[in-house]
Specification:
Blueprint (H helix, E strand, L loop, with lengths): L1 H34 L3 H14 L3 H23 L5 H29 L6 H38 L2
Amino acid sequence: MKALTSILLTASLVSTGLMAGIFLAFTTAVMPGLRAADDRTFVAAMQQFNAAIQNGLFFLVFLGALVFPTAAAVLRARAGEPYLWIAIAAGLYLVVLILTIGISVPLNNALAGASLADAARARADFEGVWVPVNNVRTILSTLALLCLGHVMVAGWTR
C-alpha cells in the first residue's frame, strides 16, 4: 500500500505542477501577449487554444490533479498516516475545477461560438472575467502544489 501511495503522491505532484504551469503560462505570457492584439486576432487565437487543449493528455492531467491526491489522502487516512496537507491540496484543486467548469468553460464555449464579425463584443464578454478567474486558478493550483511538495519533502526527510 505504501508503494501505491507513493505513486499517487508523485502523480499528484506532477499533475498539479503541470496544471499550475498551464495556468501560469496564460497568466504571465499568453493573455499579456494577446492584450495588444486586435479583437479579431484575440478571439481567433483563443478559439484555437481552447479547441487544441481539449485532448486526452490534458484531461488526464487536469482531472488527475484532483483524483490522484484524493486517492492518496484516502489511502493514508485508512493506514492511519497523516493526510491533512494532501487533503488541503485536493480541496484547493477542487476549487480550481469548480471555477474551470463553472466559469471558464462556459466562457470558452461562448467564445467558440462567437463570430469574428462581432469580435469586440465577444472579447469584452470573455476577457474581463476569464483573466481574473485564471489568475485565481493559478494561485490556487500553486498553493496545492506547495502543499504536495511539503508532503513529499516531509516524507523524504523522515
